[in-house]
Design a protein that fits this description.
102 residues, mainly beta, Thrombin, subunit H, six-stranded antiparallel β-barrel, 6 strands, 0% helix
Length: 102
């Protein structure tokens, strides 16, 4: 008997939350040390990583500050490092950040 796609074993270590392209703010420094802020779409979120969609690529290992609900008094900040950045067929970039452990 062969294993179907639906019967394959889940290999993720952490629960993944679909963010339905919720907009988040990211803060990073470019190669000239200039601070930049962008509003981008968050695709999904897990305990270990965050997947984002952006109109530009981000260099690997760039440290990024992510702010959820930036305009609210109880906004949440996280830090991550660019682990993967790949351009999709539609021209946008899918970025995976490895989240910093506290």
């Amino acid at each position: 008997m062969t294993e179907s796609r639906n019967d394959q074993i889940e290999r993720r270590q952490f629960f993944r939350l679909d963010m339905e392209k919720e907009i988040v703010d990211i803060f990073l420094q470019d190669e000239n040390g200039q601070s930049n802020q962008k509003k981008i779409a968050c695709l999904n979120f897990s305990q270990a990583a965050l997947k984002l969609e952006c109109d530009q690529d981000l260099p690997l290992q760039t440290t990024v500050k992510i702010v959820f609900h930036a305009k609210e008094a109880k906004s949440q900040n996280m830090f991550g490092q660019v682990l993967r950045c790949s351009q999709k067929d539609h021209g946008w970039f899918e970025i995976v950040l490895m989240l910093a452990r506290n």
